[in-house]
Backbone:
């Protein structure tokens, strides 16, 4: 049995590049470490997003504004650098000066690609700068037993079991009826007008809950109001907890980026992923790798590809009853993956004398 570390202090560094994913992943990790008894300092260069994402804060988590004037704080026993964001030089110097430097992990992006298993846990010796001589290690979330897995809060199942879907939907002005309920969190997919048209023309009515920000702006550009069988609801920015409630309430969720994508999988209903687009089209291989893991039927695979602009084929018709068992199986498999916080703690314990 690998050694398990006692509760220690973690420093998590997060730079907000764009969108909400960097902050979303780091906040979720910090809050879950706090819930498990660890003390966490979350260093963020832009904390504004937390006002709506986590207005309630979290026990044992202190947010440290990360600006040019770096606070003079002694490093904790573990340093997490999220997505290669380069902690401040003065902090690295303090790490190197310690008799027992902190365990240092670079938390990477989630992918189902095969390089993840190869790269997970690899050392990256630091050759230059104030941290020269220290070694950081890569930590990759992923979809196999040989990766860092996915984050699942310890209280996830209990929260889910206590959740009242109908009451939550009523708050949004939706009374349970024969309509299917969908949520939309996306960038600006070229196929969005097709989706709206498909829903408007369908035999079955649809309540579409549109998240605030880019998704709402994109829908506004194409359909200020719903028509035909489509009813639109524009949501405010939700806290992460409320966003889970949205996902748990819907028959199908459109998700994007990384964190909402994982939450969509864990919600257990079909989740259509818009992957974060990259200039060199690296996201194409990333999407295909995930489809390899999901093993969807042909029309669902085609839907993913068309939604992400990998093909110009028309969007297939949404077929929630047929896609639901695929989502249920993905949920079971996601539950069986390593749990990310446990894996982080385990990997720190293996590499340090803490
Ligand atoms: O916002 P994103 O597109 O973030 C992206 C990706 O993470 C991408 O990989 C990264 O490189 C880029 O940012 C910089 O999607 P993501 O990852 O799903 O993050 C959204 C977060 O916002 C997630 O934690 C859920 C949360 N959220 C809320 O808390 N309330 C809301 O109302 C909504 C819509 C989302």
Residues:
């Amino acid at each position: 049995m690998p050694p398990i570390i006692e509760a220690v202090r973690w420093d998590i560094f997060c730079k907000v590049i764009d969108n909400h994913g960097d902050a979303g992943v780091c906040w979720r990790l910090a809050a879950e470490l706090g819930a498990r008894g660890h003390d966490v300092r979350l260093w963020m260069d832009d904390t504004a997003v937390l006002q709506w994402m986590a207005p309630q804060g979290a026990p044992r988590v202190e947010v440290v504004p990360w600006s040019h004037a770096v606070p003079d704080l002694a490093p904790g026993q573990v340093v997490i650098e999220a997505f290669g964001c380069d902690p401040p030089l003065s902090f690295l110097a303090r790490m190197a000066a310690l008799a027992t430097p902190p365990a240092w992990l670079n938390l990477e992006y989630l992918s189902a690609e095969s390089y993840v298993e190869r790269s997970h846990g690899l050392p990256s010796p630091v050759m230059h700068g104030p941290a020269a001589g220290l070694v950081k290690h890569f930590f990759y979330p992923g979809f196999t037993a040989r990766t860092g897995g996915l984050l699942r809060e310890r209280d996830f199942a209990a929260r889910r079991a206590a959740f009242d879907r109908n009451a939550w939907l009523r708050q949004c002005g939706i009374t349970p009826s024969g309509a299917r309920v969908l949520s939309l969190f996306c960038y600006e997919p070229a196929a969005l007008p097709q989706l709206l048209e498909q829903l408007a023309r369908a035999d079955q009515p649809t309540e579409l809950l549109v998240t605030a920000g880019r998704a709402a702006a994109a829908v506004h550009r194409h359909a200020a109001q719903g028509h035909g069988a489509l009813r639109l609801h524009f949501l405010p920015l939700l806290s992460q907890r409320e966003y889970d409630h949205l996902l748990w309430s819907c028959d199908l969720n459109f998700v994007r980026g990384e964190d909402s994508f994982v939450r969509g999988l864990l919600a257990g209903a079909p989740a259509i992923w818009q992957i974060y687009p990259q200039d060199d089209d690296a996201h194409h291989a990333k999407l295909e790798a995930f489809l390899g893991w999901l093993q969807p039927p042909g029309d669902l695979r085609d839907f993913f590809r068309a939604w992400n602009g990998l093909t110009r084929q028309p969007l297939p018709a949404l077929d929630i009853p047929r896609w639901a068992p695929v989502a249920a199986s993905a949920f079971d498999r996601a539950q069986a993956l390593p749990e990310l916080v446990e894996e982080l703690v385990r990997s720190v314990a293996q590499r340090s004398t803490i």
